[in-house]
Amino acid sequence: EIKENKIYGLLGRNGAGKSTLLKIINNRIYATDGYVYIDGLDSVENDKAQKDVFLMNDENTYPSNMTVSEMLKWTESFYPDADADKGLKLAEKFSLDTKKRLGSLSTGYRSIAKFIAAIASNAKYTFLDEPVLGLDAGHRELVYKIILEEYSDAPRTFVIATHIIEEVSALLENVIIVEKGKILENDSVDNLLSKGYCVSGDEYTVNEFIKDKNVISTEKVGSVKVAYILGNKVTGSMQNLDVSALSLQKLFVKLTENERGE
């Protein structure tokens, strides 16, 4: 279940089924089993349901000879709440020439054009499959900023499928983790991160502490050792050890490793 007005991260390794799931929800391909309902409506070949969902992915769904501004106008004809003027303003922020044809854009700017169309659609459920793929650091930051601004100004549901977990983790409220076509987790970020923690300190002290713990991984930074641990935080004295939250990426890696038997 994907709830209204939340920002989700859809996480999974290559081949886990993220893109396939998004295509099924958005009626790009058909499910071999099961059903998808959008606000109670069957999603398959259902215009009433599909007007509330928009998928940005690596597919080129707009004609290559169409200009960016024409693409935005075309989007208005399919999505009743779409706003082409919003799209034009966003294009200015990215320095994207809206008179250019989609087929003439670089890979990065083609991704930006698709992202702008997704935001301008104002779709109730907006799905972004690897939205920053091929973008430089400045443009990636701008994408994240725009998502947060959109969500703040007029809340809607965003589902972001990505491999760049550390960059996007600050945006997310909920996370769906998939592996081999199965959903491993669908929970809030806070609940997921409460499943583990990390400790750091001198090597001897950390090694003694983690002897009976479920350790995800360890690393050394100079004379400091850091251990990432699954389980409830130990209460009481933690002398000479610093305790901090587990990162979403570390937790994701561990959960998918367990599923793959690595």
Helix and strand arrangement:
Blueprint: E1 7-11, H1 18-25, E2 37-38, E3 41-42, H2 47-50, E4 53-56, H3 68-78, H4 84-93, H5 107-121, E5 125-129, H6 137-153, E6 157-161, H7 165-168, E7 174-179, E8 182-188, H8 189-193, E9 196-202, H9 203-209, E10 214-221, E11 224-230, E12 242-245, H10 248-260
Parallel strand pairs: 1-6, 1-7, 4-5, 5-6
Antiparallel strand pairs: 2-3, 7-8, 9-11, 9-12, 10-11
Helix pairs in contact: 3-4, 3-5, 4-5
Describe this entry's structure for a reader:
- It is a single chain.
- The protein is α/β, with parallel strands linked by helices and 262 residues long.
- It folds into two domains: 185 residues, Rossmann fold (3-Layer(aba) Sandwich), CATH 3.40.50; 50 residues.
- 36% of the residues lie in helices and 24% in strands.
- β7 and β8 form a beta hairpin.
- The radius of gyration is 21 Å and the shape is elongated.
- The model has no long low-confidence stretch (mean pLDDT 92).
In CATH terms, what is the fold-level topology of the largest domain? Rossmann fold
Query: How many structural units, i.e. domains?
Result: 2
Structural class: alpha/beta
What is the β-strand count? Answer: 12
In short:
With 262 residues, this protein is an alpha/beta fold.
Kindly list the characteristics that best describe this protein.
6-stranded mixed sheet; 2 domains; Rossmann fold; 4-stranded antiparallel sheet; 262 residues; 12 strands; 10 helices; alpha/beta
